[in-house]
Amino acid sequence: PYTPLHYLLMDGFKALVMTSGNMTEEPINITNSAAFRNLKGIADYFLVHNRDIYLRSDDSIVRVINRVPRQIRRSRGYVPTPIFLPESFPKLPPVLAVGGELKNTICLTKENRVFLSQHVGDMENLETYEFFKLTISHLRRILEIEPVVIAHDLHPDYLSSRFAREQKNIACMAVQHHHAHIVGCMAEYGITGPVIGMAMDGTGLGTDGHIWGGDIILADPVSFQRKAHFDYIPLPGGDAAARFPWRMALVYLHKAYGDALFDLDIPFVEHLDETQAAIVIRMAQQGVNSPFTSSCGRLFDAIASLIGLRDKNVYEGQAPIELEMCQRRDENGRYPYRIEKSENHYHLLTAELIRGIVGDMGKGTSRGIISARFHNTITQMLRQTCLLLRDETGIEQVAMSGGSFQNGTLLDNLTRMLEQDGFQVYSHRLVPSNDGGLALGQALCAGFRVSKWKGRYDS
User: Fold this and answer.
1) Which of 35, 54, 73 is the last residue of a domain?
2) Residues 114, 443: contact at Cβ < 8 Å?
3) Domain limits at 78?
4) pLDDT for position 3
5) Residues 291-326, buried b or exposed e (16+ Cβ, 10 A)?
């Protein structure tokens, strides 16, 4: 509690569970009438006031990982505190960055300062889109910033990207999703690289037209070169595969075993609806609404479903969260894997990893041990790739970004190992590693490009 009203409220209850005043995927209700209308089915009582809310600002969320506070959602209490850029950076023009589709925030630059907005949310309905536009106009007015360029995600169908292209008399600049993630991390520490950038998340359109999300790039603020990624896998049903992790488990099994997967003596296969499974496999094989993805988040989804934790995500990231929570912390084993090099590019192959997990399931190995071994394997795969790239390039700075690094085990273990290997490791503290920090990277990418800063890579 931090106001007298909180103390008065809590004095009458043993415990209260706090949540924001909105339905799922909708902005917070800011008028009494809207709250009565929209929340009457979930709230038992209403405490109202005659002072209306002018601008929404969700609660901020911070997770402490290895004694370091990490922003999960940067909003009330932190916004609009600026992030200061070092004098070594070029003088950047005023830039508006409009973020992505999920966990949207916007960013404005002014001289050596960058201002991130409060949490806007997922751009999935009209109410959130209107809040997004209000947030932009509000910040531009109070900060007295007239941007000369708008930075947006490479994906043309994001509402934020469409908004950017619709603005008149101002230049637009598309920034690849994972490049923005890495540059956002670099901005926190005031470095220009080059870095080995590990971008691990659920989704982001790549320059090859596929869905990236498990990628390692060489990067500076204006350019990047993709050097490694998890092997491509079909995403059957598109976004539906993120809601139903069993689909991802099925396509990973099919890649490792082919149709012989149906002969596997494991609970996942025993509980499959064979007709439905055959349809999903056929969709993936024929490319029907099944784009290819290298997503780390979808790999975590697949393993969570494969070992029986969850077949449907009720909220974003649920399966990976449960996979992290169930692991045995004292388990040091890991599974086999392969990293292959082809045309100056490394492919992180998962078929042997999947077969190792299936082998453990056949032996009756506990979920906790399988989860721990999986985490250990992914950590080692990423570590080995960084070592290979250092041998090749001499780069010793590693920047880690993307929603998968909200996984405390992955972040902590990988950081520790890389530092033992002599790397300088950078990860988010001031802004979220998820898409809530995306606009920061977009703004810096665009600002550096407009200032004619010379990049190292042909991205």
Assistant:
1) 54
2) yes
3) 62-192+432-450
4) 85
5) bbbbbbbbbbbbbbbbbebbeebeebbbbbbbbbeb
Distance (Å, rounded) from C-alpha 433 to C-alpha 201?
9
What is residue 93's DSSP assignment? P
Tokens of 154: 């490479």
pLDDT at 459 (0 to 100): 59
What type of residue sits at position 208?
Answer: D
Write down the number of H helices and E strands in the chain: 15, 17
Give Cβ neighbours of residue 307 (< 8 Å, ≥ 6 apart): 268, 323, 357, 361, 367, 370, 371
DSSP 228-292: EEEPPEE-TTTTHHHH-HHHHHHHHHHHHHGGGGGG--SHHHHT--HHHHHHHHHHHHHTTT--E
Residue type, 280: V
Indicate the residue among 33, 54, 75 that finishes a domain. 54
Is residue 298 within 8 A of residue 252, CB to CB? The reply is: no
Give the number of domains in the chain: 3
Considering the domain architecture, whether residues 423 and 441 belong to the same structural domain is answered as no
Q: Would residue 162 be called left, alpha or beta, if left means φ above 0 and alpha means ψ between -120 and 50 degrees?
A: alpha
**Same-domain pairing of 397 and 255:** yes
Q: What is the identity of the amino acid at 411?
A: L
CATH no. for residue 328? 3.30.420.40
Q: Is 165 exposed, middle or buried (0-12, 13-18, 19+ CB in 10 A)?
A: exposed
**How far is the C-alpha of 360 from the C-alpha of 358, rounded, in Å?**
5
Same domain, 436 and 405: no
Q: 409-425 in b/e burial notation, b at 16+ Cβ within 10 A?
A: bbbbbbbebbeeeebeb
pLDDT digits (tens, 9 = 90+) for 231-276: 999 999 999 999 999 999 999 999 999 999 999 999 999 999 989 9
Below-50 pLDDT ranges, the chain: none
Domain co-membership, 407 together with 305: yes
Predicted pLDDT at 432: 97
CATH number of the domain within which 188 lies: 3.30.420.360
116 close to 431: Cβ distance less than 8 angstroms: yes
Q: What's the DSSP call for residue 156?
A: T
Is the same domain home to 265 and 157?
Answer: no
Q: Which amino acid is at 267?
A: P
Under a CB-based contact definition with an 8 Å cutoff, are residues 316 and 102 in contact?
A: yes
* Same-domain status, 296 and 332: yes
Are 10 and 4 in contact by the 8 Å Cβ rule? The answer is no
Q: pLDDT value at position 260?
A: 94
